[in-house]
Amino acid sequence: MKKEWTIEQVKGYMEPKRNDEIALPMAKYMKNHFPFLGIKTPERRLLFKAMTNEMELPPYEDMEKEVWGLFQLEEREYHYIAIELLSNYKKQLAVKDLLFCQKLIEMKSWWDSVDSIAPKIVGDIVLANRMEGEAVMVEWAKSSNKWTNRASILHQLKYKDKTNEELLFATIQRHAESKEFFLQKSIGWVLREYAKTRPQVVQEFVGSHTLAPLSKREALKHFK
Predict the structure, then answer these.
(1) Domains of the chain, residue spans
(2) In this predicted model, what pLDDT tens digit does every residue of 140-194 receive, in sequence order?
(3) Cα separation of 69 and 84, whole Å?
(4) What is the CATH number of domain 1-89?
């Protein structure tokens, strides 16, 4: 019989793996925005697999409370576990859950958490609910929070031929003149990825619109 999922149980898996020697360079890589336990990604994923094998996932009704609780812990690995936990509810997540995703995106924000939430979790919700989901993405693009803006740009990152070109290019144009590094980078990244599906369209868009040099360089990185 599986154990009940609790944050204390999660800590019981994670804390014994604490490694200060690894934690320091991990924190430095993230500009010391967060302390780390010192658990590298492959080991953390194995630990999460063990947790889900040995503990009963919380019911969907308790999902937000459990994910949010993990996000309140200091060490960054707990935030990663929270995002992995959230991703286990993909089949149940709906447009109404985008508000909670936004809350996570704007909580203890940095590129690592935002980029784990936006392309897959948010992207999957929007893809399954195009009209309502895309309306939310339009609002996210207007947000005063740069990380929510980044998520609105990146939510179609893995869409390939399912990309809503009109929405993609409108969102990019809204932030094309931004001085913000993380927005410039996300614009270049999403264009570079979409170029794998429609290279000519991307080349024409980049050639006919004013983009930051970083965005343009990233967008055209794979063109000769």
Answers:
(1) 1-89
(2) 999 999 999 999 999 999 999 999 999 999 999 999 999 999 999 999 999 999 9
(3) 14
(4) 1.25.10.90
